[in-house]
Amino acid sequence: MNPRPSALLPDIDGCISALSVALGGNGLYTKREDLVRYETGARYGAGQAAFVMRPSSTAEVAVALKICSQHRVTVVPQGANTGLVGASTPDESGQQAVLSLERAASTLQLNHINRSIEVSAGVSLSKLNDFLKSYGLWFPIDLGADPTVGGMIATNTGGTRFIRYGDVRRNVLGLEVVLNDGTTLNFMDQVRKNNTGLDTKQLFIGTGGRFGIVTRAILEVHPLPQNAATALIVPSSPAGALDILVDMEEHFGPQLTSFEGISRTALAAVLVGVPQLRNPFLNEQLPHYSLLVEVSTWTKGGDGNLTLDQALERELERAFEAGKIENAFTQDAANLWSIRHHISDSLKLKGKVIALDVSVPRDRFVQFRDKACEEVKRLADFVLIADFGHLGDGGVHFNMIWPHEVPSDAELVERLRTAVYDLVAAHGGSFSAEHGVGPFNAHYYKRYVPAAKQSLEHLIEEALASRSLGNTLS
């Protein structure tokens, strides 16, 4: 490839000079020792940043982006850097700049009557919920990681309680966004109904910072559950799990908060990797597949004259009598949820994790899972399959574990990924259910996303003049 004309090369030195005046010493890092922690992702190796910007306000974000645009420097927005697709870290060129929103975390303004909160993009999920807890409220995105509000919006995070509360998109009322040239867009609506045209804020939710950087948001918040009941269920068959799901939805309605699936390999990895967790099955053989189910209410009541625990127990008894379940455990909910939340880290102890985050329509889940397991074993019978995830919404973390003792083979890993993604597409699903696209998934985006949709997104990107934002797929 011929080198670009010098006029189009980024002017790193000029950009740093202008930013040092605009942001000050605490808002701009240029020393190598200060850059390192911004260059490494949660699950992948390091890139190299030209410099790191740390604006503390929307105005500083705007001036930083304007200066970078003027000096042709590509910007990579970064929240808590918990993403898994390379979207929040620079590449290896040393020509990209990181814009960290960690200092943009000053606003937490609750509107209790409206059940909404204005929050800065750099506020972490844990800080947000710690603040809301004293008001009996929460932002119900439940994750193993602790991302920022801006990061959750950029990736449209879901989590384990999607079936009840939906994803981030469903819980965003308003946004403030800064475009590449420094233009600030104010969509900070408090209303839940607005039919005055295109819901423009949606362009910036789930698009990974491709169109602009979120600096503030107005989020819908919910009452904290006052009563909850949890069960670990062993279905008579994986296919029977979906019958149980439908039964639970019909009986509990919106009280059904979570419906998670856990494979035997995933469960075994946790019980070995985190030995302090209690094995619900004691000395019994671990089931081929199990379900983690939660029902909850905002009030202290249950189902008529029954407590919520009693109502769940009665529903489990019905399922057992109908032959739909083989076993169920309802004790020690904290232990059961700890098992679920420690799966990802425990899998790393067994080998290199080839982590796929996919979704399919619920009625096609069993067929997809069977075919995917069969295809992986055909291609590499030594690879372990440890799937788990949000069965209630059709999501599954289809993890393949490459044993430490087996030499790496990048070509075979790519064949495995593509084989599973091909099956996802064949079953009407998505190759990225929650994690986003980013550099790691860019070639899958081109392979699986319809050309017409890609073209439309490119037109929007051009119109918003955000080509120098780092997560660009065109």
TrEMBL record:
Gene3D superfamilies: 3.30.465.10, 3.30.70.2190, 3.30.70.2740, Uridine Diphospho-n-acetylenolpyruvylglucosamine Reductase, domain 2. SUPFAM superfamilies: FAD-binding/transporter-associated domain-like, FAD-linked oxidases, C-terminal domain. Coiled coil: none annotated. Residues 44-224 form the FAD-binding PCMH-type domain. One of its GO terms (biological process) is respiratory electron transport chain. InterPro entries: FAD-bd_oxidored_4_C, FAD-bd_PCMH, FAD-bd_PCMH-like_sf, FAD-bd_PCMH_sub1, FAD-bd_PCMH_sub2, FAD-linked_Oxase-like_C, FAD-oxidored/transferase_4, Oxid_FAD_bind_N. Keywords: FAD, Flavoprotein, Oxidoreductase, Plasmid. Its cofactor is FAD. GO terms for molecular function: FAD binding; oxidoreductase activity. It comes from the Bacteria. It holds the Pfam family FAD_binding_4. PANTHER family: D-2-HYDROXYGLUTARATE DEHYDROGENASE, MITOCHONDRIAL (PTHR43716:SF1). This is D-2-hydroxyglutarate dehydrogenase. It comes from Sinorhizobium americanum.
